[in-house]
Amino acid sequence: MVIDDFKGAFEALEPKSPGQEALKKALQSDKDLVGVFGPTGTGKSLFSIVYSFSMVAEGRYKRVVLTRPVIDVVSGKEVTVLSDPEMYRRLAAEYLIDILQGLFPEEAVAEVLKSEKLLLSDPHFLRGRTFDNSIIIVDDSQSVPPETIVEIITRLGRDSKLVIIGDPVFQRTHEPGRDGASMAREILGNEPTAEIVDLGIKDIVRPGAKRGVRLLMELIMRKRELNDIEKRVLDSARIFAPDADIITVVDLTEPARHWDIESEHVPDALVIVKEGHLGRFIGRNGERIEKIEEDTELKIRAIELTLDLKEIIRAIHPVSWIHRHVVDFDFAGPQLRIRVPSRYMGPMIGQGGAHVKFLDEVMRRLLGVGVYVEEVADVENQANQATEARRRERSRGRRGRRKK
């Protein structure tokens, strides 16, 4: 098998989520810069690599330039062409084989690796080169210095396309928002010939990846440093709910004071427990959480950690019913995006943005990511308007028949 056998492979690749559908359209578009960002298991590398090989096989581009950093997961050190050229080449090849396994035999992919149509390149050694008639893929961009990404963009030649792939939340190696993926997303956001696709938890399709992302969120929460209030709740819970696996406790009194939140629905502290442990924390008739509240003199609410992040909105948003109207709450690049219909934007955001600022501060404490709100079409309102229009039309028809 040579790269020509990839003809039609991308067209045959079926999207399994709305985000993957958007990614497929973005790759097929005439945009010369495409950024795709999201957690592991969303297919961002698979779609991009199959697209690139297919387009070379079909003659749209002459070659694929695939570049990514290779990080030693134990030491955290980067393996480069200079430090260990054989290991870099071997690990880069294994990465490609892992992505394409199941679609193509390993032996077939090995043949492609030998082809002149594919260039595996260390991102540190692209400076001074220009790539014409090529499709360039920068994967794991969260571990690439932003300056290197800009340098790669400047190397984009005639009739070429650049695809930047990264996870700016769970695999970042820098402080939130300063990693290569986050900075690349900001840069591409204002480029007229660029398109950005954000993939979230709902787009994870690889078996095991959803559990992996949940465990990564759990790890981030468990590593948080607790303040005095949070420690007091945790210490009390260890006495009155000793068999409950508590992931973390977040103090809400400080963010509430900061943004003048006075809603009775907002507790003083939110306790997040392992899935299946909520009953152990609350008690059969609520007696455990009542003892903890009495001991700490705090109003406490507890939830289980799942991938349904809307549960956090339900638990702490100042407007108790607003969670029912949240269309989506998921990762979008280095932030969390809440999507709500236009008529619920006011209650969601709050006066002067107080509600969303409160949520933003809490989520930064929990996961190190901010929150923003996006308005979406009010589907329910549109449906009601359509129903009313049909009713009026039928009414006019009946009046017309009576006149006759």
CATH superfamily descriptor of the largest domain: P-loop containing nucleotide triphosphate hydrolases
Low-confidence stretches: none
Number of domains: 2
Number of helices: 16
The oligomeric state is: single chain
Question: How would the global form be characterised?
Answer: globular
- Order of strands across the widest beta sheet? 5-2-6-7-1-8
Beta fraction of the residues?
Answer: 15-25%
Structural commentary:
- The chain is α/β, with parallel strands linked by helices.
- It has two domains: 3-206, Rossmann fold (3-Layer(aba) Sandwich); 210-379, K homology (KH) domain (GMP Synthetase, Chain A, domain 3), CATH 3.30.300.20.
- It has 16 helices and 14 strands.
- The N and C termini lie far apart (75 Å).
- The model has no long low-confidence stretch (mean pLDDT 90).
Please specify the SSE layout and strand pairing.
Elements: H1 9-12, H2 18-28, E1 33-37, H3 44-57, E2 63-67, E3 70-71, E4 78-79, H4 85-100, H5 106-113, E5 118-121, E6 134-138, H6 146-154, E7 161-166, H7 180-189, E8 194-198, H8 209-222, H9 228-240, E9 246-251, H10 253-258, E10 269-273, H11 278-282, H12 287-296, E11 300-304, H13 310-316, E12 328-332, E13 335-341, H14 345-349, H15 354-367, E14 371-376, H16 379-403
Parallel strand pairs: 1-7, 1-8, 2-5, 2-6, 6-7, 10-11, 13-14
Antiparallel strand pairs: 3-4, 9-10, 12-13
Helix pairs in contact: 2-3, 4-5, 6-7, 9-12
Key traits:
single chain, 404 residues, alpha/beta, Rossmann fold, GMP Synthetase, Chain A, domain 3, 2 domains, six-stranded parallel beta sheet, three-stranded mixed beta sheet, 14 strands
